[in-house]
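Service request form, structural biology core

Requester: graduate student, group of Dr. S.
Request type: structure prediction, single chain
Budget code: on file
Notes: please return the result as structure tokens.

Sequence provided:
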Amino acid sequence: MATPYSDKISQTAPGASDSVAAPVIRKIGLSDLHDALRLGWEDFKAVPSHAIILCVIYPVLGLVLARMTLGYSVLPLLFPLAAGFALIGPFAALGLYELSRRRERGEEASAWHALGVLRSPSFGAMLGLGTLLLILFVVWVTTANAIYVSKFGNAPAASIPDFASRIFTTTEGHQLIVQGCGVGLLFAIMALCVSVVAFPLMLDRHANVTDAVQTSLRVVMKNPVTMAAWGLIVAALLVVGSLPLFVGLAVVLPLLGHATWHLYRKVLEPDPNPRQDPPRPPKGRRYAADFPVSLFPWGRDKP
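Core staff response, request fulfilled:
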């Protein structure tokens, strides 16, 4: 059953200009973050979307398994991969934004409807920003691995206790923690600043990449404390969800994806000039006789 929300709903008018007026940004607090998480959980319960997220998790697990097959130690990669989900999560949650938007409008919403985001006029812009985040993710994992190798070399850890002993009881391990967390924080801040509301804005108002990124930056500048708290919440939930070999992310990522949509609704004023999505052509049964004759030249009458 669709759940109504109190926020106004932005729709777009046909024939509207491609330029999007700068959205009006609200000042929000920690209670708004709690409310966004609550609404996100309601969306997840109404439309379980584990399968969507597993499609994101499996490639990462494939990377881990590939390294194991080649004889590399995967332990140094586990924390960078878990932290890296914060970088690609906003793009991976595209389908979840669509599900939350449909529920907000009172429309039918099932896991299958998440694919509706592929028909969005701004999907190309989403793909462009998503590619940027993916590059950021690869650079982060490579950097984290380079930091580890600089401290301990390429020799793999013999076991989990051996790896933990290296990290927590040696000077090199302490330096690795400080440097790794410091560099990771810079990557996370960068991703948060450019994408905190960028993808929902592109989906909802068909904004281009430049407008979406600029709006995300303005949101962070106007709500620095609240956005910092949101980043910490995201990081903490991702770490918890990653502990049992990433399996918990099948719940954590949908929750954060749906909650991000509601955070977007809370931090931006409703669109004063809404645009309406182009109507989809009705699907009807097609018969062979309906196809153009040009598709079947052998069926033409001879002159």
